[in-house]
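Researcher: I'm preparing a figure for a lab meeting and need a structural model of a single chain. I don't have an experimental structure, so a prediction will have to do for now. The sequence is pasted below. Please return the structure as tokens so I can convert it later.
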Amino acid sequence: MTQTPFSRRRALLAGAVVAGGAVALSSREAAAAKRGWEPSYSGGPERPPLPPGEPGKDYRPTITPGGSTAPFKVVDGVKVFHLVAEEVDHEFAPGLRANCWGYNGQVHGPTIEAVEGDRVRIYVSNRLSAPTTVHWHGIFLPSGMDGVGGLNQVAIMPGETFMYEWTFRQHGTFMYHSHHDEMTQMAMGLMGMMVVHPRKPSADYQVDRDFVTMLGEWVIPAGARRPDPNAMADFNVLTMNARAFPGTVPLVCNKGDRVRMRFGNLSAMDHHPIHLHGHYFKIAATDGGRIPVAARWPETTVLVPTGSTRDVELIADNVGDWAMHCHMTHHVMNQMGHEIPNLVGIDVGDLDAKARKVLPGYMTMGQDGMGDMATMGMKVPENSLPMVGAKGPYDYITMGGMFTIFRVREGLTSYDDPGYYENPPGTQATVATAEAIARDGIDISRVADHAGKKRGGHGHHHGHGMKKSGGKAK
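Model: Understood. Here is the structure written out token by token.
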């Protein structure tokens, strides 16, 4: 018998009926799918746990530059972790230490790593002087495990140990932090990263290097030994994994490595546009989940909003040392005062000579910007960090704070820091020779009046750089 469109539709509907209630459920799901709604926005019902995922076998472990990964043990099929909230004497960079709060003797806490389907049990011991809790930021779990003090649980009192337990129903990049008096406790450092790997990763998920970076901001007055948790502006220590350049640890890769960078931001007030030199990447995931391959977009800067995570992915195919930093310019400075008057462009004339008669050694600063200040050898308060960065291979790197280096090399036999890159001849910017200027008809007549500054007076290494590239110093 020939089927009409109506009879085919009726047969299709009849075949779809399994039980009376199933028809209604199927209709709701079909209607939701038509509107673009997902089946679940909270991971769905809890499922039986799967065998614990093993590092090196079921997933490639992540790297937390300047930090660590939390150890665990397996007890009756459950991964068991232990976090100890305590005061930590933390070094942000050589010359700056502070009494912060952290987990397991470090700031920030260790990265917790697991696999989708793992059952985890996390003990939290409180060695602080104040009550605390831990919130598992972005994780699908029972309400009573969410860690908001007063709402989901009583606070963990000093000397107490609490136990959190759940089964992971998702994979991605997440965070954990105190959710009791969080303005104070997060500002003191109580936070960390959490990475959950997929149980059956797809081909696009595979990487060779998987870096984890927590972005943070602090107010530490020059000479102080504690962060100020009451500050709402003028953050003067900006960090990657609780370290400020030159204390940050570089990200080292072999040429051709598939690289994932996971960024989490628990800064008190600021978003951070993280910019990578020398490459572009694709935005691959948020803390809400992976972005389908066809929907990813290329960038060289990823904006990481406060309270969020972002994953980016790239192939490290450009050998060299590449800056990676927050592109908010005040976030790549170390401790600085914001009450300094603006002297840029001021002609001080003989002011310095006159002032030295009363104040020997007096020097007006800021009329040419801040770039030379770190090389002047000025005395700074004890336990403070000069505004700008560190000595580089050619000159002083006039960046600090939320700045690190992405190192790409060929033929690495280990991922230890290989040191600064030596640019091959012909690939190094140098002072232009008179011959080159004449050859290309460049008019430099107006430049002569600005040739007052000379090289070599501030620990510069331009001669070394020019020798490598075959140029001549003028």
